[in-house]
Amino acid sequence: MATTSPTVARWELKLRIVQLRKDSQLDDAEVMDAVGISRPYWSQVFGGSRILTVDKLRALAAAYGCDADEQEELVALRETATKERGWWMKHPALIRPEMQQLYGLEHGAHSIRCYNSLLIPGLLQSEGYARTIIAANTMIRPFEVEQHLAVRMQRQSRLTGENPLHLTAVFSEAALIQQTGGPDVLREQLLHLIELAERNPETIEYRIIPFTAAEGTALGGSTFHLLDFGSTKLPTLGWSETPTQADVVEDAAEVSSLTYAYAQALTQTLNPADSLTLIKERARE
Description:
This protein is α/β, with parallel strands linked by helices. It folds into two domains: 6-83, 434 Repressor (Amino-terminal Domain) (Orthogonal Bundle), CATH 1.10.260; 90-284, Endonuclease, Chain A (2-Layer Sandwich). The protein has helices at 6-24, 28-35, 39-47, 54-63, 68-83, 97-108, 127-135, 145-155, 183-199, 252-266, 272-284; strands at 111-116, 166-172, 204-209, 223-228, 237-241, 246-249. Strand 2 (166-172), helix 9 and strand 3 (204-209) form a beta-alpha-beta unit. Helix 1 runs antiparallel to helix 5 (68-83) and helix 7 packs across helix 8. The radius of gyration is 21 Å and the shape is elongated. This is Helix-turn-helix transcriptional regulator.
């Protein structure tokens, strides 16, 4: 069962009606007349900035030949997209639109593969480690640090619970040694990683790139995620970050390139058991 996310529901609804339009090969003007909407309204719907009313959605689905079951699926998606409000949508002054999108997609994902070269991924950060990273961000004002920290901790709720996220995290051995926040904060972070993995062995996996990996730094300081969803109607999405920009990657060719890069990075990593052993060694040191 997929975790409910209005962000994912809205995205799936858009993708499905776009695909119905493509498959039908019907004239847009005829469908607009049948549904009773204007061209500007039509453009907004297929651009994703507007959602059809229930009646018009049913009319559109019928025009495209959907049976009763598929019509109900689309209406259910609309219900989730419009009636529910995710926690990430309640702080518009704090969370930028692109990050709201990430958190919404993340909340509704079934699994995430992440690559962080020199830092522990945000979903796995302890409070002290996360506070250090957030405070160092020049785009975040000092009085906002604790608010952003609370958001990061809220994101991590997806790692536990009834339907936990499946997370595979690739990062460098350097992240286990770089004393981000100082030695006490780093040790707290390493112990946090160990606890998470041992309490969630079926859903959390680390793949450490050791210093001995011949091509370990081939991707440089890249940070990207690959998100997969429970619905068979949804493709894999990419997410790419730099210090000043963060974007969802929907283009199939670009997602394919990220998937290949991730697969290549995995060839340089230790297996999950050895990765956890290395984390424990570094924590003892």
